[in-house]
Write a structure and sequence with these properties.
Shape: elongated
Low-confidence stretches: none
Distance between the termini: 15 Å
Structural class: alpha/beta
Radius of gyration: 26 Å
Largest sheet: 10 strands, mixed
Strand content: 5-15%
Number of strands: 17
């Protein structure tokens, strides 16, 4: 799904109305229905009042439509319009006229001195819907709208935003003065760039995209390098297995991981790879770090690499490491290998010589010299968290987080590889400047080993023959889906990496049954 600017969305709206004859009121109706449905999924009517705060423009009109549908569903709805009736846009006015006979809880505020009424209303509410300002915002928010936004932010009532949080730039993700902090945003037609750039994720909360009937041929004309990751991008790669197939048909991955006292990460990578369809997985461990292989992981093979007695990868093991790649189809390098100078030398020399698709993760990123992979013939996928990316780009974590998309693209251009910037809204970027954003996953996945599981899924897909970009996009999406399924079962608080790996089978089973999530 493409991610668009405010101007591009206006172009699409205009084309739908003028070139395809879809009335503007129909588009507004669809948006309002989607907004109401989202509110109903998040809040039960038995819990109390919903307050919808509307501006004078079409964003306010979306809120008025939502109010009507919530009322029809039996919700206790209070609507506050921050304008007089005569000041409403034509389409908002049309929906006000339909709504007004349905409720006595419809009030108009036209100056800041009246905001105490809104404060009292919000204090009685289980939820507020922000429909004050939309994507057309071009200057700092002031006056009544700004004061209302500040009031909403000062209270503890959860806010659902219509299209974009009011006051947030739909293009840059930067607040234009005051901006609503929402727990969820229901965006219409296509997602807006500002929901992902700058501080957009901090203000928009969970994101839902509501289709409003924009014609697909018009969407195809929009030139953008940003998109959301959706199963349709890669679901056709997960075809049923042939009845006469064998383990050799599904790839053999090599995982170079571990150091003295730190072997668990490599097990997780290998197990996630096997759970993601790999026929074979070999854990390549430094010789002196290897004490005994954990019998709990009987499906995983082991290869011991000479390590100059350091219990960590070292230059003396380079030839053996290259030899161990015979018969392998992809490799992962980095989990728990440490950052000693000998390991740094090994990793960079190994990456220059190893002719296999590679996932570069964890400590390998901390010792990586970008020129070591710049000219590789085989694809490289780098999977940093913000701290690791900051070290690679010589930037602070705050700088990375302020523009995650730009940072991920910068890494791809620097190395020539695919970058996977982990975290909320994981970004998959390519050297040509394209970026795709993932929305699956949850806060419970902020725990040890989750990155190892993701590396295992990615290397599995590479080893099975997928191209690098779809492999990365599929892996981050599936990893998040498995995390969501696991959290639904054990809670976010109790979630551990093993729970996510176990749920990978449930994700693949859904697709095998023709259910796309």
């Amino acid at each position: 799904m493409k991610i668009v600017t405010a101007s591009q969305m206006r172009t699409l709206d205009d084309a739908a109305i003028n070139a395809h004859g879809i009335p503007a009121l129909v588009l507004m109706e669809r948006a309002g229905v989607g907004l109401a449905n989202a509110v109903m999924r998040l809040f039960k009517k038995e819990r109390g009042q919903i307050t919808i705060v509307c501006g004078r423009g079409n964003n306010g009109g979306d809120g008025l439509v939502a109010a009507r549908h919530l009322l029809s569903a039996g919700y206790d709805v209070h609507v506050t319009v921050l304008a007089g009736i005569a000041d409403l846009s034509p389409d908002a006015r049309a929906n006000w006229e339909v709504l007004a006979p349905m409720t006595a809880h419809l009030e108009h505020l036209q100056n800041e001195t009246e905001l105490q009424l809104l404060a009292q209303t919000l204090a009685r509410s289980q939820c507020a819907v922000d429909a004050i300002l939309g994507t057309g915002l071009s200057k700092s928010v002031q006056g009544l709208a700004g004061a209302a936004i500040n009031l909403m932010n000062s209270l503890k009532v959860p806010v659902v935003a219509a299209d974009v949080p009011s006051g947030l730039s739909a293009d840059t993700g930067l607040p234009q003065g005051s901006a609503v902090r929402a727990i969820a945003t229901v965006t219409f037609g296509l997602p807006k760039a500002g929901l992902f750039l700058g501080r957009g994720p901090d203000f928009s909360g969970d994101l839902e995209v509501v289709p409003i009937g924009i014609p697909e041929d018009e969407i195809a004309k929009i030139d953008t390098k940003l998109e959301l990751i959706e199963p349709e991008m890669f679901a056709n790669l997960f075809i049923p297995r042939r009845p006469d197939s064998h383990k050799g048909n599904y790839g053999h991955v090599a995982v170079f991981a571990g150091s003295r006292g730190h072997l668990g990460a490599g097990y997780l990578v290998c197990l996630a790879a096997l759970r993601s369809g790999s026929g074979l997985a070999t854990y390549c461990i430094p010789e002196k770090a290897f004490v005994r292989f954990d019998s709990s992981y009987s499906e995983i093979m082991c290869d011991v690499i000479p390590d100059d007695g350091l219990a960590a990868f070292a230059p003396g093991g380079l030839d053996a490491a290259i030899a161990s790649l015979k018969g392998k189809t992809a490799m992962a390098v980095g989990p728990a290998i440490g950052t000693a100078s000998e390991t740094r030398e090994f990793v960079n020399a190994f990456l220059k010589k190893a002719d296999l698709p590679v996932v570069i993760d964890a400590d390998a990123l901390n010792v990586l010299e970008p020129e070591s992979i710049k000219s590789r013939k085989f694809p490289a996928i780098l999977t940093p968290h913000p701290g690791e990316l900051g070290r690679l780009l010589r930037k602070s974590v705050d700088e990375i987080q302020k523009d995650r998309i730009a940072a991920a693209v910068e890494l791809s251009k620097l190395t020539g590889g695919i970058s996977v910037l982990k975290g909320r809204g994981t970004v998959v970027a390519t050297p040509d400047g394209r970026a795709a954003i993932n929305l699956t996953g949850n806060a419970g996945m902020a725990t040890a080993g989750m990155g190892d599981a993701l590396a295992g899924i990615i290397v599995s897909f590479l080893g099975q023959g997928m191209e690098a970009r779809p492999a990365a996009m599929a892996a981050v999406h599936i990893h998040g889906l498995a995390g969501d399924l696991a959290a639904a079962e054990v809670s976010q608080r109790a979630l551990v990496t093993g729970d996510v790996i176990r749920k990978l089978g449930s994700v693949f089973k859904q697709w095998e049954q023709g259910v796309k999530s």
